[in-house]
Amino acid sequence: DTAVSQTPKYLVTQMGNDKSIKCEQNLGHDTMYWYKQDSKKFLKIMFSYNNKELIINETVPNRFSPKSPDKAHLNLHINSLELGDSAVYFCASSPIQGHKLFFGSGTQLSVL
Amino acid sequence: GENVEQHPSTLSVQEGDSAVIKCTYSDSASNYFPWYKQELGKGPQLIIDIRSNVGEKKDQRIAVTLNKTAKHFSLHITETQPEDSAVYFCAAEYQGAQKLVFGQGTRLTINP
């Protein structure tokens, strides 16, 4: 039933590790996104994909690599995790680029 | 640049009173302005949106007004209820970049 689902919900890991977050949407949308929400609740776009093609790549360290195997999935892999990567990461999808985003419930990443 | 300013950052109102949150944006070409509600531990949820060809839109107790000339838009919640307590985000679509840029968020508390 869940429209945009992401796993895991919580991720606690050590500095220097590599981790992945997975996202799937069953809404039939062409566009998917990754947003980062910091401790002050500020929401900032990281990436967007349209039908598996990278559309937006904000100034994100290249340790972050998104992958879209098909238009219903957008995963986020993070290499060499740093303390500053601790945040909540939200996946979202929309029927049109930049319009009516549906968000997942978030992945709280804590880097120790 | 891409900027959405949102005020106030916190707002506390008595149950039954009205709440107003205001946002300004910088790109005169922006045409789409959604509002999101984020409850604790959940992802942002779209509650209402407005396009630039409309000055006002209402949905039950929620209304949004848009002044394109002044580049600002506002969320109005009437007859507030405890379940309205949440963090609210405005956003503006930046067409050149086809993305939503979010305001800083307003933590709304409804006091019984």
Write the layout of secondary structure elements.
The complex is a heterodimer of chains A (112) and B (112).
Chain A: E1 4-7, E2 10-13, E3 19-25, E4 31-37, E5 43-50, E6 53-57, E7 64-70, E8 73-78, E9 87-94, E10 102-103, E11 107-111
Parallel strand pairs in A: 2-11
Antiparallel strand pairs in A: 1-3, 3-8, 4-5, 4-9, 5-6, 7-8, 9-10, 9-11
Chain B: E1 4-7, E2 10-14, E3 19-25, E4 32-38, E5 45-51, E6 56-59, E7 62-67, E8 72-77, E9 86-94, E10 99-102, E11 106-111
Parallel strand pairs in B: 2-11
Antiparallel strand pairs in B: 1-3, 3-8, 4-5, 4-9, 6-7, 7-8, 9-10, 9-11
Description:
The complex is a heterodimer of chains A (112) and B (112). Chain A is built from no helices and eleven strands. With 112 residues, chain A is mainly beta. In chain A, strands 2, 4, 5, 6, 9, 10 and 11 form a seven-stranded mixed β-sheet that branches. In chain A, strands 1-3-8-7 form a four-stranded antiparallel β-sheet, with no helix packed on it. The radius of gyration of chain A is 13 Å and the shape is globular. The N and C termini of chain A lie far apart (34 Å). Chain B contains no helices and eleven strands. Chain B has strands at 4-7, 10-14, 19-25, 32-38, 45-51, 56-59, 62-67, 72-77, 86-94, 99-102, 106-111. In chain B, strand 9 and strand 10 form a beta hairpin. Chain A binds chain B through residues 4, 40-45, 48, 55-56, 90, 92, 97-106, and chain B through 32, 34, 36, 38, 41-46, 49, 87, 89, 93-95, 97-102, 104-105, 107.
The shape of chain A is globular
* Average pLDDT rating of chain A: 94
Biggest contact: A-B, 22 and 25 residues
Number of helices of chain A: 0
Low-confidence runs of chain A: none
Helix content of chain A: under 10%
End-to-end CA span of chain B: 41 Å
Strand fraction band of chain A? over 45%
> How many E-type strands of chain B?
11
- Helix proportion of residues of chain B, in percent? under 10%
Structural class of chain B: mainly beta
Indicate the low-confidence ranges of chain B by residue numbers. Answer: none
Order of helices and strands of chain B: EEEEEEEEEEE
Integer-rounded radius of gyration of chain A: 13 Å
Subunit organisation of the chains: heterodimer
Spatial separation of the terminal alpha carbons of chain A: 34 Å
| Beta content of chain B | over 45%
User: Largest beta sheet of chain A, briefly?
Assistant: 7 strands, mixed
CA gyration radius of chain B, whole angstroms: 13 Å
The average pLDDT of chain B is 94
